[in-house]
Amino acid sequence: MAIERSRRRSPGYILVVTNHAGDARNIRDSLLAMGPEPLAVEWVRTLSEGLDRLKTLSIEAVILDLSLPDSQGMETFHKVSISAPGVPILVLSDSAQEEVAQEAVLHGAHDYLPKDRLDAYSLPRAVQTMIASKLAAEMLVGDRERADATLDSIGDAVLSTDNNGRITYLNAVAERMMGWTLAEALGRPLAEVFHIVDRETREAAANPLEFAIEQDHMVGLSEDCLLIRRDGSELAIEDSAAPIRDHAGRVVGAVLIFRDVGQARALAHKLFHLALHDSLTELPNRVLLNDRLNQAVRMDVRHHKKLAVLFVDLDRFKAVNDSLGHAMGDAVLKSVAKRMQETLRDMDTVSRHGGDEFVILLPEIEAADDAALVAEKLLRSLTEPHFIAGRELHVAASIGISIYPEHGRLAEVLVNRADLAMYEAKKSGGRNYRFFE
Fold first, then answer.
1. First and final CA of the chain: distance in angstroms?
2. Residue extents of the structural domains in the chain
3. pLDDT digit string, tens, across residues 12-31
4. For the domain 1-145, what is the CATH code?
5. Whole-model pTM?
6. Class of domain 277-435
7. Which helix (H) or strand (E) holds 255?
């Protein structure tokens, strides 16, 4: 018989019990990352208020600070645990309370989380895993409709198995990500439905659900794992798994929460690239150049080598922008950047300093004459015609050169002195180079 999704109901509450307003605010903000329909957050400052909410609200999980105005330590945990049987509890701890938090886990808390990790990654991950574990257990006793609605509302994929590693549940997000429907996957071995490999080695990754059952606590998937979907396509994922316990506390299976992190990683890589590169030419910017220059200085100190910094400025470039427009000027800058890269060694760095200024790092040279030879090659290369949008354009440049260690031992000093030398080259008519004196 086909398995149908139940109609969605309003999810319940996450009860936050802490006297620290800052921690409560961080928790509330972090839990907004749990998807388009996050569970409602109810915050109270005292244990007595928390016990009252447990009686009057539908609480899915408790985030509990063990240090409250009216209760301290394990007594706090025990009172909440007795008042909310079956409700998972995530304990908050600071460095002074860590041992107590670990004791609470031994006595049935789902997990504990240091207060310095109340961020939009660690906290939602821990909360989602403990809620999924609780709801998967509820499904075992037939409360499927409410559990299904809540598991779909948390935004991440949820999968559960029994103790034999056979699929017992997929939420709608898991169905979409894996390419399997719940009806198709039900009862199948996990490895048949959830195929994960290491991104580098392509070897099968360890099964986190087996670890969760064997170790009887929450575990995470190793980094750089790929999910092989039913159609053979791949998704970069991250996940966490936790054991499922029945009302008697026996482990009866495991639940896995996972999410597609491919887009997030691609965006992070793009933002990192943009932070270190010029958006027009794709050349390293000042930040990346400065980092490479400092590294080169340290290396050359060790190897008793020299290095050179070349400051390149295009002659009369303003006339190009004024007469042909900024779009053509940008095209010229891109052509110049490409021409310089083709002229230099792979180990050299050419960066855009701003406008029509470029700074070049030549590491590991033997003598100043090596830098002079490179400057001459650059001047010849840049004066070759640039063919852009059907036009033949001619570009000239002035180059200033500073040498480490003769002209300075700091990156900023070397760049500034190459800049001064470039102005001397311009004063003498341009289309040439000068060393700093």
1. 87
2. 1-145, 156-267, 277-435
3. 788 999 999 888 888 887 77
4. 3.40.50.2300
5. 0.50
6. alpha beta
7. strand 251-260
